[in-house]
Amino acid sequence: MEARKLNVGMLGYAFMGKAHSNALRQMPHFFFPPPAVPVLKVICGRHEADLKKAKAQLGWEETMTSWEEMIKRKDIDVFVNCGPNNVHKEPCIKAAEAGKHIICEKPLAMNAHDAEEMALAVKKAGVKAMVAFNYRRVPAIRLAKKMIDDGLIGKIYHYRATYLQDWIMDPKFPLVWRLQKDVAGSGPHGDLNAHILDLSAFLVGKVGSVCGMVETFIKERPIQGAAGDLGAAKGDASKLGKVTVEDAAIFMARFENGALGTFEATRFAKGRRNFNRIEINGSKGSVVFNLERMNELEFFSEEDPKFAQGFKTINVTENAHPYGGIWWPSGHIIGYEHTFTHEVFEFFKAIEEDGPVSPSFEDGVYNNKVLDAVLESAERGTWVSI
Questions:
Q1: Which residues, 6+ apart, have CB-to-CB distance to 228 below 8 Å?
Q2: Is the pLDDT reported for residue 228 higher than 80?
Q3: What is the mean pLDDT of residues 146-172?
Q4: Are residues 240 and 317 in the same domain?
Q5: Stretch 139-168: mean pLDDT
Q6: CA dist., res. 280 & res. 286, Å (int)
Q7: Does the N-terminal peptide bond of residue 107 adopt cis geometry, omega within 30 degrees of 0?
Q8: Are residues 327 and 187 both part of a single domain?
Q9: In 3-state terms, what secondary structure has residue 315?
Q10: CATH number of the domain where residue 378 is located
């Protein structure tokens, strides 16, 4: 039986637009036969010239400059929201009300209140909706999840996570949208801590209370000229604008199950381009993951003989591993882009089988609640319960 085709409308065409477009195209070729076939129907954005280029480069059939009109179209089945954080809420709510299934980039919303409204709209409409926390789809992370669930590291005591970048350290770097609170909501806290917080929920459990601090090291930046998603263009050095988000955010957490957590996100870690590392310590062992070596998982087990104990590196490239055998023969690595393809597969499978979606918009609400609590804690200088 031939797989059903589902037409996709997507908002956004920059960094995440490329990643999602590639995943939508590739999924039915590798997860074959696919649960359903995504059709890249409409790509939407503000600028005609950029849209025309994106259409040709990324393989879309049509372009539109109005997301409102795109969502109204009866021939659109799935809405993918890759827009800035301030355009997550309204388009997703309208898409749910129009009966579209939804993939929304992270964080789900600018704050927990908006996230709750989005989750409620999805629940009322009965559509499938996923938050695009793509690192849940890394095979090594899925293996870590299985090992934890199987009790191989025992009772969890510590979750230790850092997500480090350095791309805005130059004071001449322009005031891009990610540095503006009214568009981004927050800085690396919502951009990077959101990811490692979601991984903690997936691997360890929910957080009960937090204590955080934030800092903005460069208070003003050149007003931005034309720029891409990460603001590659130069700003006007003669005109400065205020940076309204943090440059770094660090927080401690107590998990509901008694484990302790530390989280650090910064864009001021010189030499770190995209360093996403987590370590989980338990009563029987530990696991370590580093995105820069994403096909590997480090594992320590007290059950190994004393003379052979030590961290071992598992190459997560075998057919026996999560998503193994989908891509290449054993021993061949995959990359960042494949996590989005896994995400698309799981989402379209949930649509066709009427199964659960993970991470759901409810998971996104939890994530936003913790993010908000950390910022409240930093402002008040005290612990805050979730």
A1: 14, 15
A2: no
A3: 98
A4: yes
A5: 98
A6: 6
A7: yes
A8: yes
A9: strand
A10: 3.30.360.10
Quote the number of domains for the chain.
Answer: 2
The amino acid that residue 3 corresponds to is A
Residue 345 lies in a domain: no
Give ∠ CA 366-371-374 in degrees, rounded to 5.
Answer: 125
Give 278-303 pLDDT, tens digit per residue.
999 999 999 999 999 999 999 999 99
Please check whether residue 71 is in contact with residue 95, taking contact to mean a CB–CB distance below 8 angstroms: yes
State whether residue 224 is helix, strand or coil.
Answer: strand
Q: Residue 199's pLDDT is what? A: 98
pLDDT of residue 1: 73
Residue 126 has which token pair? 């009965």
Q: Is residue 240 part of a domain?
A: yes
Number of Cβ atoms within 10 Å of the Cβ of 75 = 9
Long-range CB contacts (< 8 A, 24+ apart) of 381-384? 382/211, 383/209, 383/210, 383/211, 384/209, 384/210, 384/211
Q: E strands along 72-192, which residues?
A: 78-81, 101-104, 129-131, 156-164
Average pLDDT over residues 333-338: 98
Domain that holds residue 112: 5-135
CB 94 within 8 A of CB 68: yes
* pLDDT tens string 68-89: 999 999 999 999 999 999 999 9
How far lies 349's CA from each of 28, 53, 363, in Å? 11, 31, 19
User: Among 118, 135, 152, which residue terminates a domain?
Assistant: 135
From CA 167, how far away is CA 261, in angstroms rounded?
Answer: 26
State how far the Cα of 12 lies from the Cα of 18, in Å rounded to an integer: 9
